Amino acid sequence: MTRVSLSRRPRQTDIARFAGVSVSTVSRVLANEPGISTNVRDQVIRIASELGYSIRPVPAVQPQNPRAVALIPVDQATGGLGVFYEGILGGLRGAAARTGGTLLPRLVRSSSLKVSEIEQTLSETDATGIFLVGIDPPEDLCEWLLASKLPTVWVNGNDPNLQFDCVSPANFYGARLATQHLIDAGHRRILHFTMSHRHTIRERVRGFEAAAAKNGVATRIVQLPPGSRTSSDACEAMEAILQEDQGFTAVFCMNDMMAVGVMEALTNHHMSIPQDFAVMGFDDLPCAAMTMPRLTTMHVDREAIGQEAYWLMQRRIADPSADPRKVELAVRLVEGATVQAHTKPSESEETPA
Q1: What is the DSSP letter of 108?
Q2: 336 located within any domain
Q3: In the predicted model, what is the mean pLDDT of residues 5-23?
Q4: DSSP letter string over 304-316?
Q5: CATH code of the domain in which 236 resides
Q6: pLDDT in tens, 248-268
Q7: Total structural domains in the chain?
Q8: For residue 160, what are the contacts with CB-CB under 8 A and spacing of at least 6?
């Protein structure tokens, strides 16, 4: 067995590096929190001891095996984002199976979700908790959930009032990194295609704006209407922009389906990708690997979102008075072939002779 050592006081980042796990996992092991396998827990404790890290005894929170309902928007599940929510549901199901819990998926109309509908679902299923998957509940529903003390986790959602446990991708930072990638490639006039219908998506807009402001680049935000046919509507919007010929050379799309539509419009105008125009997506959906050239995008670990949500539910049931937790999972750049170094100035940047 290999022993490890350091010449300085050890930190959790050191334990994570030697154990081959995340810092979050180390933190949870040292806090005796549930949802960590015995092998990983033993490995982290062993390495922490070898490094001389001081481990304080913490009463273990007994893991709970919830019987929980997962409410999923029917429009999202049956539309182009179905694969996104399938991944999240797979993470929830996998975590439930490993811990002896029960997951009960239900498709709902999120735009008309009412307290009475949830009450009926809880009565029919005898559930002890509820996952709101891709749903931003209205104020009256939030008030009822808080008053009822029903364990609730927002999945792929952010509670702006910090009253509920929630887990989502790092939308702000991911969008900032995506935009910075275009800027680093030399682009100075960049479009952003979005819908901004949810708080999580507005975080991507903020990330785009933050990177653009930091670097002083020109931008334009293109808003598609909520409920639009994402790919075809993005294609039509991009067609109109190309007709205007405003000198943009790159676009960051809020998801890969929009990026596919944008690429279609560019192809229709006989523009080469990425030589004439760069395209950046987000989510790393299967369609990103089907484009020609392969779409450059940001990978979202959808199953990990579901797994983290299930752990949050276990924690909430075990300790109802615990402070709410907001978890953001890192996203990473997937280097496709739709972004490359850009040297040709746009028309608006060229100086007349």
Answers
A1: E
A2: no
A3: 83
A4: HHHHHHHHHHHHH
A5: 3.40.50.2300
A6: 999 999 999 999 999 999 999
A7: 3
A8: 199
